[in-house]
Design brief:
Elements lengths: L2 E5 L2 E3 L5 E8 L6 E8 L6 E7 L4 E4 L7 E6 L4 E6 L8 E9 H7 L11 E2 L3 E5 L2
Parallel strand pairs: 2-11
Antiparallel strand pairs: 1-3, 3-8, 4-5, 4-9, 5-6, 7-8, 9-10, 9-11
Length: about 130
Amino acid sequence: QMQLVESGGGLVQPGGSLRLSCAASGFTLDYYVVGWFRQAPGKEREVVSCISVSDGTPYYTDSLKGRFTTSRDNAKSTVYLQVNSLKPEDTAVYYCAAVWADLLSRSGGSWYEPSQYNYWGQGTQVTVSA
């Protein structure tokens, strides 16, 4: 069974950091694009970043660039999201999602569109509070 499993969320004080993990189970991520999204209570799902696992090229939402870093470990079939200088407004459930890179390319869609992704994790809660 093909699954994505996120981990690493938790309660952190403003200014703190977290590293979220997204591990693939039942498949490898080598030829996938993996995106990170977040959803705060009462708000729509928001794209954070994505990474092309084959070559490691990251993409970021402009407003979050600089505090968020995405990377991958191909050997572990795991993608990471390092989040620094956390703010209360970063509080949300963070999800990772994956789409076959070639499929995304042929669809003409964009990495920041949740509808382009086929596989989703269950999410990990990040709460930023003093």
